[in-house]
TrEMBL record:
It comes from Cereibacter azotoformans. It comes from the Bacteria. GO terms for biological process: intein-mediated protein splicing. This is Hint domain-containing protein. Residues 15-159 form the Hedgehog/Intein (Hint) domain.
Length: 207
């Protein structure tokens, strides 16, 4: 999971927005309707239960003051044919799965994760000046790749810096569920599901 810190001290995390449809064994379900314990289809580890969900509302005033927090619109087909299969909005640091045909020039792996903010450009991916949004992230027992609006995207990945930057209530809730995250070994268990392209490589993606 990618992260950054705004001037207000807000940690910017990888999140979905309401209306994004997540693939589950019972069909696609809007992310805001999912609950802890619901099962989701993962790319690597089959059906996985959701262990934690967190939501945060960002109002228009906050987005005006900190425009780098604005969501990124990923238009239908902007990642390839029918990828995603309908428009979706994600937080700027939410990583999307990109395959070798878009990365092979500068990356040897068959698949990699790229933050949405680094894909902004002429391909149909752009920042959105909206009146406010809610960011929702879902967490599993490990960093997973899940299907959202027909495109593979990352789940929430905890890091030491991210946990430190959370509000007290959110941090307490997370650490009660995952006490192992207090240690470096526990954090290491949530290693990245895929290699992550750094900005200089992301800039070289084919368009």
């Amino acid at each position: 999971m990618s992260e950054s810190r705004s001037q207000s001290g807000t940690v910017v995390v990888a999140c979905f927005t309401p209306g994004t449809l997540i693939a589950t064994p019972r069909g696609e379900v809007a992310v805001e309707e999912l609950a802890v314990g619901d099962r989701v289809i993962s790319r690597d580890n089959g059906i996985q239960p959701i262990r934690w969900i967190s939501r945060r509302r960002l109002d228009h005033a906050l987005l005006l003051a900190h425009p780098h927090l604005r969501p990124v619109l990923v238009e239908k087909g902007s990642l390839g044919q029918d990828l995603p299969d309908r428009d979706m909005m994600v937080s700027p640091n939410h990583r999307l799965l990109v395959t070798r045909d878009r990365t092979h020039i500068h990356f040897d792996e068959p698949e990699a994760l790229v933050a949405a903010k680094h894909l902004v450009g002429p391909r149909g991916i752009r920042e959105v000046d909206c009146g406010g949004t809610t960011y929702i992230h879902i967490m599993f027992d490990r960093h997973e790749v899940v299907l959202a609006n027909g495109a593979w995207c990352e789940s929430f990945q905890p890091t030491e810096r991210l946990i430190h930057g959370m509000g007290n209530a959110q941090r307490t809730e997370l650490l009660e569920l995952f006490p192992s995250l207090r240690s470096s070994d526990g954090l290491a268990a949530f290693g990245r599901a895929r290699p992550v392209l750094v900005p200089d490589r992301e800039a070289a993606l084919t368009r």
